[in-house]
Fold:
Amino acid sequence: MNAIRNDFAIWGKRTNGTGKEIPIHLRYAIDVKPQIYYSILEKKLFISNTYSFTDSQGRITTGPYDWRELIYQMAKDNLNK
Structure:
């Protein structure tokens, strides 16, 4: 997981209006890291370890998941709409 970074380069192809494939390059950076995500497929709340909250007994706690896990869950949900 630590090898995954905040800046992504994506290479691929798309088809134009005439049916010809055109090579494309997309560069994407995550500006704000997600802190909380509810997965539709997993039916589970994912809380990032960068997010602090107070539990029912007054203890300050952080979530168990790395922010990249939340992005992974978002992608899984998006693929299986």
